[in-house]
Amino acid sequence: MSELRSISRISNRRSLTALVLCILIIIVVFIGVVIKLTAPITATDPDEGMRAFRYFTVLSNIVMGFCAAMCIPFAIDGRRYGNYHLPRWAVYTLYTGVTGVAVTFVTAVCFLGPVGGYDWIMFRRANLYLHTISPILSLILFLFVNDDHTIRLPWSLVSILPMHVYGKVYYVEVFSIGAAAGGWRDHYRFGEYLEPYQAALAFLALGLIVSNVIRVIHNLRHKARKKLFERYYTESELFACEDVLEAVRVLASIDRESDRDGELIVPRRAIRVLKRRYDSSLSIRDLCKAYCDCYLEKEQ
After folding, report:
1. How many CB atoms lie within 10 A of CB 139?
2. pLDDT-derived band of residue 124, with 50, 70 and 90 as boundaries?
3. Alpha-carbon distance 287 to 247, whole Å?
4. CB burial class (10 A; 0-12, 13-18, 19+) of residue 9?
5. Whether residue 89 sits in one domain with residue 42
6. pLDDT above 70: residue 65
7. Same domain, 174 and 210
8. Same structural domain for residues 159 and 281?
9. pTM
10. Number of structural domains, the chain?
11. Which is deepest, 16, 126, 211, 258, by most CB within 10 Å?
């Protein structure tokens, strides 16, 4: 019983941590964007106010803010029912948002910081929130909390699509039109060090490298968590039963004891592990039905 309580505690901690991190990310992004939008336009900072939306930093952080907001309902449900788990589409969407702010962070640390000074680029005004705090919180959320599901290699290409779109717009506005003709100024100063095509390739290459580093770390974390989860149900004496049906009924009885008068959540992942443990020929559907029948016995 203590082992299952341990699983429940882990799930509760994950959901609470995810909830706190998501709220913090939204607050941090909001503060940073408001600072950019309300800052006065000066000779040294001509792209403040509404022009701030020309920055990939601002756009990527706004996308990340929406991704964090998307995770909040799942975190709340995890707290209510003790079963925190993100669906695959949510993990992939979050991956795209995290990749954007991670590229912002790496660009600030490796390129903008040495040129503009780390004190200004990383720790002053909106940069503190959008270049530093938001990306760090987002990486913690994705790599150490929301590490559900394996991310396949092809999705690393999808995750940089926002960068690809922004890069095309930036190329046209900065290098094709130019600030003198009404386009954007080269606020990232790519043109000072690279040819336009070199800057475009470097930007996309950076995105691919960052997205795949994040993907590999995330998958390693997911593999470790999945292994721990499966070990509970394959080695625990609680489920040392005559057959898989009895083991599923034991699981249902334990879950029923901690029922919070909420919606019935069928633990398909745990049932799938039990099915493998007993090498059962019964379908997942039949086992889930057995779980529900046992769980709802007191309702009848």
Report:
1. 17
2. confident
3. 10
4. exposed
5. yes
6. yes
7. yes
8. no
9. 0.84
10. 2
11. 211
Whether 107 and 206 have beta carbons less than 8 Å apart is answered as yes
Domain of residue 261: give its range.
Answer: 237-299
31 and 177 share one domain: yes
Per-residue model confidence as pLDDT tens digits over 143-170: 998 888 899 999 999 999 998 898 889 8
Closest to 156 (Cα-Cα) out of 236, 111, 214, 82: 214
Per-residue model confidence as pLDDT tens digits over 245-293: 888 888 888 777 766 656 677 888 888 888 888 888 888 898 899 888 8
What is the rounded distance in angstroms from the CA atom of residue 153 to the CA atom of residue 150?
Answer: 10
